[in-house]
């Protein structure tokens, strides 16, 4: 661990304990990033700044739930994404935007979040291992359906034909798989359900 990482880790631990000086450090470091991120999607600087301030207030109030240094950025970007989507949905109703525009915005937000949060090789390796183990632990039929759907990009009808089951059975297996994975990988939902379950 380099000096900067060690310094920030110590600040993170102090932040978790309620140190306002440590909180101010992360506020100064990330406020402009969260604001700029939000502006790309809501096109209103004042609103984006208000949203960023709200995100940091929420972070401070929930600091005990943040488990790692990278968790700070995960928390902030996830909160900002939620608020941006709420505003986009509001505008969708108000301005009668088409639903496919909203879906595209959400996809862009997900990609932006992933590109904005830095993860080291060890974390990614651990994440991949947990995903693979959790998928391997699925019931055989459920695992087969999940792999065909998420990794082979097959449609439900194709899967049903290949496995000689009904469409409802395929849907039921997918629902079961996502429910099991959501439970097992709850600590990593921010990443995992963007990476493999948000298609």
UniProtKB/TrEMBL annotation:
<dbReference type="InterPro" id="IPR036388">
    <property type="entry name" value="WH-like_DNA-bd_sf"/>
</dbReference>
<dbReference type="InterPro" id="IPR013325">
    <property type="entry name" value="RNA_pol_sigma_r2"/>
</dbReference>
<protein>
    <submittedName>
        <fullName>RNA polymerase sigma-70 factor, ECF subfamily</fullName>
    </submittedName>
</protein>
<dbReference type="InterPro" id="IPR014284">
    <property type="entry name" value="RNA_pol_sigma-70_dom"/>
</dbReference>
<dbReference type="InterPro" id="IPR007627">
    <property type="entry name" value="RNA_pol_sigma70_r2"/>
</dbReference>
<feature type="domain" description="RNA polymerase sigma-70 region 2">
    <location>
        <begin position="27"/>
        <end position="92"/>
    </location>
</feature>
<dbReference type="GO" id="GO:0016987">
    <property type="term" value="F:sigma factor activity"/>
</dbReference>
<dbReference type="GO" id="GO:0006352">
    <property type="term" value="P:DNA-templated transcription initiation"/>
</dbReference>
<dbReference type="Pfam" id="PF08281">
    <property type="entry name" value="Sigma70_r4_2"/>
</dbReference>
<dbReference type="InterPro" id="IPR013324">
    <property type="entry name" value="RNA_pol_sigma_r3/r4-like"/>
</dbReference>
<keyword id="KW-0805">Transcription regulation</keyword>
<keyword id="KW-0804">Transcription</keyword>
<comment type="similarity">
    <text>Belongs to the sigma-70 factor family. ECF subfamily.</text>
</comment>
<feature type="domain" description="RNA polymerase sigma factor 70 region 4 type 2">
    <location>
        <begin position="129"/>
        <end position="180"/>
    </location>
</feature>
<dbReference type="InterPro" id="IPR013249">
    <property type="entry name" value="RNA_pol_sigma70_r4_t2"/>
</dbReference>
<dbReference type="Pfam" id="PF04542">
    <property type="entry name" value="Sigma70_r2"/>
</dbReference>
<dbReference type="GO" id="GO:0003677">
    <property type="term" value="F:DNA binding"/>
</dbReference>
<keyword id="KW-0731">Sigma factor</keyword>
<dbReference type="InterPro" id="IPR039425">
    <property type="entry name" value="RNA_pol_sigma-70-like"/>
</dbReference>
<dbReference type="InterPro" id="IPR014327">
    <property type="entry name" value="RNA_pol_sigma70_bacteroid"/>
</dbReference>
